[in-house]
Specification:
Blueprint lengths: L2 H27 L2 E4 L2 E4 H16 L3 H4 L1 H8 L14 H12 L2 H14 L2 H26 L2 E2 L5 E2 L2 H54 L11 H20 L1 H30 L4 H12 L8 H17 L6 H5 L7 H8 L1 H21 L2 H7 L8 H9 L5 H32 L3 H20 L3 H44 L18
Antiparallel strand pairs: 1-2, 3-4
Helix pairs in contact: 1-20, 2-7, 2-12, 2-20, 4-14, 5-10, 5-15, 5-18, 6-12, 6-15, 6-16, 6-17, 7-8, 7-11, 7-12, 7-14, 7-15, 7-20, 8-18, 8-19, 8-20, 9-18, 9-19, 10-15, 10-18, 15-17, 18-19
Amino acid sequence: MSLDSVTQSVDEAVSGFFEPIAKWLGEVVFYAVPVGGTDLPLIVAWLVVAGLVFTGWFGFVQLRKFGLAVDVVRGKYDEKGSAGEVNHFQALTAAVSGTVGLGNIAGVAVAVSIGGPGATFWMILCGLLGMATKFVEVTLGVKYREVHPDGTVSGGPMHYLPKGLAERFGKNGKTLGKVLAVLASFMILFFGLFGGNLFQVNQSYAQLVSVTGGEDGALGSSAGALLFGILVAALVGIVLLGGIRSIANVTSRLVPAMAGIYIVACLVVILVNVTAVPDAVATIVEGAFDPEGVAGGVLGALIIGFKRAAFSNEAGLGSAPIAHSAVRTKHPASEGLVALLEPFIDTVVICTMTALTIVIANPASWGEARAGDGSIGGVTITSDAFETVLPWFPYILTVAVLLFAISTVLTWGYYGLKAWTYLFGRSRASEVTYKALYTVFAVAGSLLTLQTLIDLADAVLFSLAVINIIGLYLLAPVVKRELNTFLEFVRVRKAGGHAEGDDDQEPVRTTV
């Protein structure tokens, strides 16, 4: 039996078993109500409302403290003797690598194709709101993290939900928190294996095949797919064995590189068409409030923009606090401020650059959709836009996709490890078992599609937002206190003084 027939049989068997489950859970998690001529998934509304609430609760912290967040990333307020494994910049790039990816390339194209250029305006707004949510969840992630005797750190909703709720509400809160923590761990683990691993490897392999001669090319065979999967798995396994320090060292180089390549390409297209920029900006703003726009006018563009932004930056899902929790700091809110830069980079900067490039260089992509022929595009729309100025861009796009995919696989490998060890313990055997399992999934990613499991993983991940945001609401007063404490530290540091208990405080170490 050939490798092709084996993989096809596995695909069909697994999909056949899980398809009814994935369909049912997807209908529940992504339940949508008709609004303004289009469907609004309630989970997206849940995420957006959280952004609005936290923006108001913390007095537009994403705008007022943006400069302070940049200073913290630069290391201006670092303290000696802080517990943690990585610096603020490395924690940020590790987390960004889990969100910046194909959604920024293909997702934006889908939004513009369906919702018109106006969807971009609402994507930006949703990204700005998500900054506040990210600030809250990451502050909690650092506040309630576990610092183990060997100096490694574990954090995320599986830690701050049980600890925080127990601290605020006693025994009942502790019981509820433990139940929520187990559910959160399972959801993160499941998505890490299928969405954060298998899907990324599968899509990066598909893009590589497309620029190397297709299925008839050197990598188009099953042997080529297996070789690619083994190479990616080997790289992932080596880096994953080194823990968050190793992952952060890689992502702190990969993320700036891949973002730099992509943004430079966008700027080239925009600068070549610089005279069209004012009209493009006007088109985006006008389209956001155009009652005759695509997919339901104003509300349609708003819903589509919010949907793509929420799926891209993951604010409120509880995934990013796992990476940010490893930061070296004594002030949880310091990393919360760093984290608010994440949706800004992911959605406000990179997604906006993509949208501007498409609107300027490839107006037909959304013009056809506006004409009502139902055209929906993805990465091809983005690629075609670049090709108008850079005919060789599909090759650069392939490099970007590979970098996006590898960094995402690494980050979700770490997220999944923390979920796994919460569920099954931190023994060496437990960790080695997970890393071996994760590596096997990386190999399978180039051979299998298992789309049903990927759909199921998406539904599981976004159901985490329901659990996580309830916890964020209940623990928001804790975040307020942490923010005030850090701002007082900053005030004293600026005045040249010494904030009592900061520089000489020994990090508290706890064991699981």
